[in-house]
Request: fold
Amino acid sequence: MKSFDYLPAQKLEEAVARGEPRTSRFIAGGTLLVDLMRLDVERPDLVVDLNGVLSSDIAWNEAGLTLGALARNTDVAYDDTVRREFPVLSEAILAGASPQIRNLATTGGNLLQRTRCAYFRDAAVPACNKRKPGSGCAALEGYTRMHAILGVSERCIAAHPSDMAVALLALDAAVHTRRATGERQIPLGDLHTLPGTTPELETVLEPGEVITRVVVPRSPRGRRSTYLKVRDRASFAFALSSAAVALELEQGTIRSARVALGGVGVKPWRAAATEAALVGRPATSETYRAAAKLATSGAKTTPDNAFKVPLTERVVARALERAGALA
Ligand SMILES: Cc1cc2nc3c(=O)[nH]c(=O)nc-3n(C[C@H](O)[C@H](O)[C@H](O)COP(=O)(O)OP(=O)(O)OC[C@H]3O[C@@H](n4cnc5c(N)ncnc54)[C@H](O)[C@@H]3O)c2cc1C
Ligand code: SF4
Reply:
């Protein structure tokens, strides 16, 4: 690992100012950053520790749920209000990583975790446009079973790995940030960017911009929500395909719906066509199956990952069945 300076920030303004150069990195739980520094994929000159300047509070009020950026994944997953009002969020977090990692991992860090593409994580592989812009993409000629089928570009097909982000997308959450010019609010669906010709840019955050909290609004769909994740092992594995689903029903008819996908998109993916096909329809298996068929509209597959299309249809249909059956 390359040597670096360490700054435990005392004030948020200090963190923003010192995090601004492209050679700085913020650290929260460290479960991702330290991993990538050990692999020589991340080589910052300065690591700015956010633990002294951000909140870890989990609060529920008229607006909904506010998660401090430092709220640990374990604390969010087992919070009584989260489990009651937004079961999808608790289930998504508990479907990821391990208890030890979740104890350290934070809300902000989880949303900003980087892809698990094996070629990206191996600094000895020369071709990776995300790691070294313009160098090519080893995955396109390589093994792509875990890679994305939605939102891919000719430069990068890496999947976004976060489970929590998929649940937060289905809950219409927004990320609140602080940057040099002030504060702003970013809908979760706008936080991550498509790879296009610049896969090295993964979010709309500016250098030095800190996530301070995440707000999940109260929702008529919150309690009837669930997360279903299919993976190679029953635990401690990233998603091959997952779905976060939230439904509002009225006398057996679907009034509104949110469906977000994980493991298949270059970013947490909203299945808009599926949502549209659900609204106004009876809450039946037939409706769920028909709507699920639209979930991967526009998919671009490789021979290794084409199985994700039918798999995702089944995952979405089953998640909808599960949400529809909730009391
Ligand atoms: C073995 C293993 C298995 C895992 N399995 C899963 C899984 O199945 N599903 C899943 O979703 N995740 C999984 N994870 C990933 C895990 O969820 C992330 O490592 C964790 O959530 C990152 O949070 P952190 O606080 O430790 O982030 P850090 O490592 O501290 O930071 C991550 C990134 O976010 C930036 N950052 C952190 N906080 C802020 C902030 N407030 N503002 C701006 N930038 C910030 C950092 O600069 C860094 O780039 C796994 C991890 C490991 C090691
Ligand atoms: S898919 Fe993206 S992250 Fe993976 S090797 Fe290609 S450019 Fe790099």
